[in-house]
Request: fold
Amino acid sequence: MFALLDDQRFIISRDIPTEIGLLFVAVAVIALGFVIWGYRTEGTRGENILRSTAAVLCGLGLTVAGYIAWKALIVEEPFQCAGGGGGCALVEKSKYARFLGIHMSIWGLIGYTTILGATIWKGDNARLAAFGLSLFGFAVSLVLRYLELWQIHAACQWCWASAVLMTLLFVVNTCRLVKYYGTGDEAR
Reply:
């Protein structure tokens, strides 16, 4: 079974250097530490920890999507991967870089902004909205990673960074929904 994934593992190891991968892992471990802390802390303080963690992740996501949008749409320079490799340029040149004629980075900016809005907003509706939006973003990230590995045969470090952030947002907002749904506008 694992032999079937040899090509995809090669693509990831070729296009995402170990240092960048370790940075992804470090961000994930730190974020998950805050998620555990927020989930285990009772009351308003616990939800505020989760909301703050989500806000920081949204800020990082906006930074990544904003950089991609700036580089691809404003500067129009060849897209470069942070740690070397050519995966970013291949992904940027692919037909999957746009959806409905709009660059994927713009969709990312819209997604992170709406999740941030739902994170700032309080109450059960906000928890449901943040969960639903981050679930949708997570699903889109999975589809895009599939397209990179099986259709484009390249991995963009910036796109993978966004996928890691969206996955972490899904985890944070799931915990926020599970722990604090039904507590009203303020967690008790």
User: Anything to note?
Assistant: The two ends are 48 Å apart (CA to CA). The chain has a mean pLDDT of 88. The helical segments are 6-15, 18-40, 43-75, 87-93, 104-120, 124-152, 157-180.
